[in-house]
């Protein structure tokens, strides 16, 4: 298991964006992370900003809502490190 929570949250975000074939809104991502008590809003915003800065995700603003998609670089990163996400967390995300 990963020792750095931010790294885990980044991988979780990449996993969620890869599993769907459409962009997810910031609200949808927040709802998952907050409802499951993984982290709080400000940490999630930090994760999203760091993923954008690293070009692992893109964000597009549509009607005052940010829509996030995984990039090719994000998919490659997930393929290398995705196994670090525990099966229990993957099950939560797959729901």
Provide the descriptors you would attach to this structure in a database record.
globular; alpha+beta; 15% strand; 95 residues; single chain; 3-stranded antiparallel sheet
Task: Walk me through what this model shows.
It contains five helices and three strands, in the order H-E-H-H-E-E-H-H. The protein is an alpha+beta fold. A three-stranded antiparallel beta sheet has the order 1-3-2. Helix 1 packs across helix 3, helix 1 packs across helix 4 and helix 1 packs across helix 5 (87-94). It is globular, with a radius of gyration of 12 Å. The relative contact order is 0.22. The model has no long low-confidence stretch (mean pLDDT 93).
Produce the secondary structure layout.
Layout: H1 5-19, E1 24-25, H2 26-35, H3 41-53, E2 57-62, E3 65-70, H4 72-81, H5 87-94
Antiparallel strand pairs: 1-3, 2-3
Helix pairs in contact: 1-3, 1-4, 1-5
The helix count comes to 5
Major sheet strand order: 1-3-2
Structural class: alpha+beta
Beta-strand fraction estimate = 5-15%
Largest sheet: 3 strands, antiparallel
Sum up the overall morphology in one term: globular
What is the radius of gyration computed over CA atoms, rounded to a whole number of angstroms?
A: 12 Å
Low-confidence stretches: none
Helical content (DSSP H or I, runs of 4+) = 55-70%
N-to-C series of helices and strands: HEHHEEHH
Q: How far from one another are the termini? A: 21 Å
**DSSP strand count:** 3
Mean of residue pLDDT values: 93
